Every structure is written in C-alpha cells, then in structure tokens.
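Lab manual, section 2.4: Encoding a predicted structure.

Procedure: take the sequence of the chain (218 residues), apply the prediction step described in section 2.3, and record the output as structure tokens. A sample record is shown.
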Amino acid sequence: MNHIVPPSLLFDVSIAVPQCTPPKTKRSAPPALPESSRLLHPGTMDAEVSHPDLRVGWHADGLAINCHVEGRSRPVSGSGSDPEVADCVLLWLDMRPSGNVHRATEYCHHFSLLPVDDDNDGKPGIFVRPIAQQRAQRVESDPKKMAIQSKTTETGYQLSAWIPGSQLSGWGQIAETRRIGFYSVIRDFEQGDLPLSTAGDFPYSYDPSLWLQLELVD
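Recorded output:
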C-alpha cells in the first residue's frame, strides 16, 4: 500500500539511549556499545526493509556511535573528498531539538563516517559536512579531535566512532537537557541508502523537524 504520509511521520519518536564509558585517553579506541544501545528504526513502519545494527551511547564527555553493516558482496570503498560516492554513515545532530524548527540552527551538526577512505590509504575517517541553509555555527568541529575505527570483512564492515562534547555546540548543557535531535543514513552503494526513518522526497538533510529525538538516560 502506498501512503501519502509515511506512517513513521505520524508519531513523535523518542528513543532512549543509555550512558557509555568514554575513551580513557584521546588515543583510546571508541567504546564498544552493548545491545541495549541499539536504535529502533522507525523507517521499518514505512516499508518492509532491514536496517544495519546502529548503536548510540552518551556520556557527559561526548557521543559514541557503533554501526555494523552486512549483506555486501563487493569491497567497501569511499573517498573523503567526495562523500556522495562513498560507503559511509551519515549523521545529523541537533543539541537543542524543538520538533518544529525547519532550518538548522547553530546547535546542529552533520558528519560522515567512512569505514574506508581511499584518499588516506584505506583508513577510516570522520568528515564535517555543511547543512544547507544553516543559520550559523558556534563550534567549528575538528575531526582530528574525534576518534574512529573500522574493520572490513567480505560481507560488510564494523565501525565505531567517538565525538567529544567539545566538538558539539551546546553539549556543555546536555546533562540538564538530556535530549538531542538525531538522524542517520547508511549510504551503501551496493544495497542503496538505508535511512533511519522516512527519506524519499522529504528534506531530512537540512530540516531538523524530520529528525528523531534521542532521550539520554542513565
């Protein structure tokens, strides 16, 4: 059945995200997250599709991301200089979500996480991306202060990343607000784009009102 309005848009989705243990040092590996950190995928209400294992954890010091992609038959590849043709995890974050703002504020961020960057000897990489029509930016996020690791296999990859709170505008007050806007798309050039929620013609790439909300719990 074709829906004029996707079923996932009929609900205000809020997903609980548990705390995690932060890296001990700047050079430590990003944390591995448990099953309790795995996100519900509202997009499955719109179509009978599977979604990769995506997990999120938080700490007063920052945000952790784990992603496990399977089902591939070709090697993972990508270029940090051209994210449109890279296998990657695309993230959109909003430190002050209201649910009714249609233009990215200074508290919004967009990153791409590449399990393989062919421009850097195949090493993984984090890249800061612009958001169309964003009003302003308070924090110039520095990927060099973030951490990412990945492991590729014949059928996919596992990726883990850590984004320090110092690289997220508004994270300093997160212990009081305990809520962030969040959206992701697993860009896979063998299996197609795999959005966390509704995509298609909806402007998720720059409209924060379409993003989900994560409730940061103890």
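Check your result against the sample. The chain has one domain: 59-216.
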